[in-house]
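new request in #modeling-help
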Amino acid sequence: MTKAKRNRLIYNIVTYALVIAAFILLQSMIANKSISRSLKGQLVPICSWIVMAVSLNLVIGISGELSLGHAGFMSIGAYTGAVVSGWLLNSFAVESTLLRLVLAILAGGIMAGVMGALIGIPVLRLRGDYLAIVTLAFGEIIRSLVNVLYIGVQDGHLCFSFLNRNMPEGVTMLVDGAKGAVKIKPISTFAVGFVLILITLTVVLNLVNSRAGRAIKATRDNRIAAESMGVPVTKYKMMAFVTAAALAGMAGALYGLNSSTVVPTQFTFNQSINVLVFVVLGGLGNVLGSVISATLLTVLPEVLRAFSDYRMLVYAVVLILVMIFTNNPLIRSFADRLIAPLKQLLRGKKQGGDEA
Amino acid sequence: MTQVKRRANTKMVPVQSDAIVPERDADKAPVLEARHLGIEFGGLKAVDDFNLTIGKTEIAGLIGPNGAGKTTVFNLITKVYEPTMGAVLINGRDTHGMNIVQASKLGIARTFQNIRLFDQMTVEENVRIGLHNQIKYNMFTGMLRLPGYWKQEKKQHERALELLHIFDMEKLADEQAGSLPYGAQRRLEIVRALATKPSLLLLDEPAAGMNPHETEELMENIAKIRDQFQIAILLIEHDMSLVMGVCEGICVLNFGRIIAKGTADEIQANPVVIEAYLGKKKEGQA
Amino acid sequence: MIFLDNLINGLSLGSIYAIIALGYTMVYGIAKMLNFAHGDVIMVGAYIAFCGLQYWGLPPVIAILAAMAVCTVLGVTIEGLAYRPLRQAASLAVLITAIGMSYLLQNIALMIWGANPKFFPPTFINSTTFKLGQLNISSATVITILANIVIMVGLTLFTAKTKMGKAMRCVSEDRGAAELMGINVNRTISVTFAIGSALAAIAGVLLCSSYPTLQPTTGSMPGIKAFTAAVFGGIGSIPGAMLGGVLLGVIEIFGKAYISTELGDAIVFAVLIVVLLVKPSGLLGKPVREKV
């Protein structure tokens, strides 16, 4: 086995092991009732944010395009999930919450994936800053559209209306314009969230270390060279974008079905930036980093109440500093020199271990 | 791809032309035919009436002063630019309306004047991108790690090492491409291009930044690659010892037009070429 | 009549977009970066003017000048601290930094002035209403449109005639070559940020004269729309920013009036997407070819 392959294997094993260990630990804490109420309430959202961060990392870190509309896909998933779950209960009397949840998450993923494809076809022809601003625009358009969307269910079929609340008598509203998705039965569970994280990790990590994933990375590193090697650039950018959108949709469905209402203002541009902070702080292209930073940054503000007022302020400073420290050649070489003796020390130890 | 729907059904026969190919390739179809090729950038003719035929196993050189349009010719052949005049035929097929990817699939591979590696990927991964259309499996096989994944990955790995062996670079397989020394980066670009199994390899200043010893080695390797892979090579180069040493047919470009074509000896003796490189003697000067 | 009313409102809103878009377009043309924080500089300018008028009792003209001065310093500081270290970095890194800067400004404003909206006091800008037949035209509308024209003519002359303006054009065309010709690139970029930020302060005051609610997030939406306008008109082009801004303002007002109030923003962004797909270089922009 080559060195690169071994490092990759270790990285993947550590990632999976950490997530599984955290799940087992938390489950046993729940069984012992030694978990705080507020943390318990955070478990499902944490799962959603991890999936959001890992999927956005696929677009930004691996495919190298800045998407500022990731929350838009989350909202599509949340709304679709709420509608599908309500519809299944109302029209087909599906009582099993697990079945409803799984179907809702799948539907959310498919819907967001389809939207991702529709958006991706025009958008991915653009480059760099333009792509960022257009994804932002799409996020805002999605938000405006769901704001005037009305969906109800009556006698087993769905009624849609747009712009005006044009609904028959006695209808059960599922999505009520600016009020959002209403009267949701919260059915999300931590276990399903955990499985969703595992699926996300499998999809993203396996993709990265495969033919398609290398093609995606190649288009990030050098578009013209990738094309010259016969790699259809747009196809692979699309693959990353749609996969990420579908995962965000699933995260959205999980998130939406964790509470009784979902409102459009939950998925603004700010939310996209939040996820961007997770990704940047965890390291562009670093999946394990995304998992850790999404978890910590979701839990910390809850733990440190006093800190929460300054949360966004600190986020902003962190974003700027991380970017300057990782991208300025002078500062970087200075930091490298600081770290070098430490690295030497570690390496020395490791070599000693090998000899023993 | 935009193609003319209706085509005249006339049989066309070859006529006399100034195209030259090595004798051993005379009975085989040429790899590349550029016919009256030209491109205008806002009224400026960067390349004009460019005619070139390259034989199946020919090593050809494209030389000329800076700004003569050499790299533009490469960009026209590889479809980075769509020519405004004339046609490029690869293995007899018209590339009109094709994009870079389609041209690559027809059998063109290239290196770049300013190196364009996938810097953040390893050396082996760079070569594997070259193998993208050679050893395939689909996205779901990769995501789900089906048996096909393991089989094809192994094949890719072995093939990549084989190719790296050309320049004795197997040991560097796990290094990050961007961190390689300059000469190694140039060699890796050639390996990556070869991985696409081209029938025509375009090298844009392969010896730039190399010392005489490295250039010597490169020259041998270019000949070796041609012999081993039986492909045609077209190279742009300013190092005349390399061009004259390895190129069979040489084409001289100045101000976007071909000013001379021929063997190394013919080119060296051609007064038009000397004038283009050194300038014209002024009347009355010694 | 309603049509004319909407048209005038559209022109007025569009003129504000145009002034903001000038800041985007100049910075993008010269520093090749999307200064995401530009919209928030507008907000800071508006707050400074607000404080000047409301708390410090300054005369309107002085308050506006104070806002311009603060914004100029702010713009130059942002550029020097956050963007200059990233001059050689990938555009993704610069963009993320700019987004961070935008957030920083919003949150600092939130700490200083709080989340509750402030109401921008009336000034000479919106003191009178002209009657033109059945039309009522606010003086704010007239002043906004006039200011836009004056600024555009001024900037065009500045870039065409002055030494600094020529330096800006050089840097925007080829930074490396400009540096070799002895142009101080860092100083040129700083001046560009200074001008853009001073314009942002004016835009902030004009924006709040027509729409007097002032919040820490006041600048972000107009900022994004103005960037849309700059792209629409052709990024890097001064007349393009003007044309794009005015058209976008008119489209937004008409969209809200005739299609749906809720979908106004969606319509504006849809226009952006259509423009980028049909003519990525914008209405007056020049297409750029990637060098291989």
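bot summary: Chain C has a mean pLDDT of 88.
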